[in-house]
Amino acid sequence: MIQFFTIREITGYLKEKQLQNRSIGFVPTMGALHEGHLTLIRQSKSENDLTVCSIFVNPVQFNNKEDLEKYPRDLARDYKMLEETGCDILFSPENKEMYPDNQPEPLDLEFGMLDKVMEGKFRPGHFKGVAIVVKKLFGIIHPTRAYFGKKDFQQLAVIRHLVHSLEIPVIIVPCDTIREPDGLAMSSRNMRLTVTERQTAPIIHHVLCKVKEKAGILPVPELKAWAVRKIEENGKMHVEYFEICDKEHLLPIENWDRKENAVAFTAVFLGTVRLIDNIELFS
Ligand code: PAF
């Protein structure tokens, strides 16, 4: 695996590959890699000539300074995992490389409700920050395909909107959420759970599975209230939101009229760790 730290070096290298018409698969990450990321790398490898992974903890997408400081970082460990998975190129720039003078390029793009509901409501500015860095990374890598996990379903919707609105020539490939054997969605944040919190965390996925069973049977408001009660029942978790939305516009649905598009989303605090998960209710 070749590692690049600067934009000049990676663009020079990739330009040559692009001239040879090699397809480039891209997996953007913030490091603290886990099996979920490695699955994206493997899928990219199977569909492209070259696979690039970026590791950059993007300060612009953190609305909470403490969350940014606590974000797990271990580049040596990540490097090893990527190399063992057969990733071809790692791009791991410093802040000043991505944002010289601490100045991210402004992004003049509206996301409608996509960046205002759920994660957007509780993490103001988060998706704008994600869009700024992803646009910049796409401009550096010029990937043929870019891979994103459905665990961050709303992020995927924001990125699709970005790519569509700015006509960025890249195929966005959504990938299924990878789970631990007990159902917990893999996330870099899981590393911050204590042993007992880790034992409690799978309840989130179990409740989402029950919600899928009850979807279309119980009225939407009743089902949402039931889910919140179930997650909070043991007194260890606090639900920040539990929503059932349509998967295209991410707007809350009130009934099951267009149920085939319904997805349940939740964000839950377990101690100080905030976990998100979702489930498509009719697929
Ligand atoms: O999903 C992530 O890890 C980040 O939001 C991303 C897409 C790498 C942008 O910083």
**Which structural class fits the helix and strand makeup?**
alpha/beta
Which range best describes the helical content: under 10%, 10-25%, 25-40%, 40-55%, 55-70% or over 70%?
Answer: 25-40%
Distance between the termini: 38 Å
CATH topology of the largest domain: Rossmann fold
Stretches with pLDDT under 50, minimum 5 residues: none
Given the structure, what is the number of helices?
Answer: 11
Can you identify the CATH class of the largest domain?
Alpha Beta
Largest sheet: 6 strands, parallel
Question: From N to C, what is the helix and strand string?
Answer: EHEHEHHEHHHEHEHHHEEE
Explain what you see.
The protein is α/β, with parallel strands linked by helices and 283 residues long. The chain has helices at residues 7-19, 35-47, 65-70, 75-85, 95-98, 119-122, 126-141, 153-165, 195-200, 203-214, 220-232, and strands spanning 2-4, 24-29, 50-55, 89-91, 145-149, 171-175, 237-246, 262-270, 273-280. The strands form two sheets. It has a six-stranded parallel β-sheet, sandwiched between helices. A three-stranded antiparallel β-sheet has the order 7-8-9, with helices on one face. It has eleven helices and nine strands. Helix 7 (126-141) packs across helix 8 and helix 10 (203-214) runs antiparallel to helix 11 (220-232). The model has no long low-confidence stretch (mean pLDDT 97). The protein folds into two domains: 2-175, Rossmann fold (3-Layer(aba) Sandwich), CATH 3.40.50; 188-277, 2-Layer Sandwich (Pantoate--beta-alanine Ligase, Chain: A,domain 2). Residues 28-30, 58, 61, 130, 133-134, 152, 155 line the site of pantoate (PAF).
